[in-house]
Amino acid sequence: MEKVIDHIGIAVRDLDKSITFYTNILGGTLIDRYRSDAKGVESEIAIFDINGDKVELLAPTNNTTSPIARFIKQKGKGVHHIAYRVNNLDEALIELKQHGIRTLEDTLRINKHGRRLIYLNPADTEGTILEYCDYPGQS
């Protein structure tokens, strides 16, 4: 199954400061900014388009339960995950299972932009947090 990079997620402490950098220095266009209080997300998110590439800035909204807060505490700010777009997430999950790659089942969700996503278990991906996603109903 073909996989292409959909976006890169970056953990940040100060979303406003990061937005200024991504706008003024990298020339990015802010596509959306929103807050998700969903369990397992608990972040404010800013989505950028930088010459056709997507970057998501992720700032924790709850320093005790947000996975982004936990990530920053353990590893510091920086690249949090790489998301790969697949044609069909259900088929990709079957393929992963056939190869013995586990997913973090509790991360399966659809975000506000209609992106269906799940995170792979970093224990099976050499420690890198990877997301698989698709966009059902969108071309």
TrEMBL record:
Q: Name one Pfam family in it.
A: Glyoxalase_4
Q: Where is the VOC domain?
A: 4-135
Domain of life of the source: Bacteria
Q: Which UniProt keywords apply?
A: Metal-binding
Q: Which PANTHER family match?
A: METHYLMALONYL-COA EPIMERASE, METHYLMALONYL-COA EPIMERASE, MITOCHONDRIAL
Similarity-based family: Belongs to the methylmalonyl-CoA epimerase family.
Task: List the protein's name.
Answer: VOC family protein
Q: Which organism is it from?
A: Alkalihalobacterium chitinilyticum
Taxonomic lineage is: Bacteria, Bacillati, Bacillota, Bacilli, Bacillales
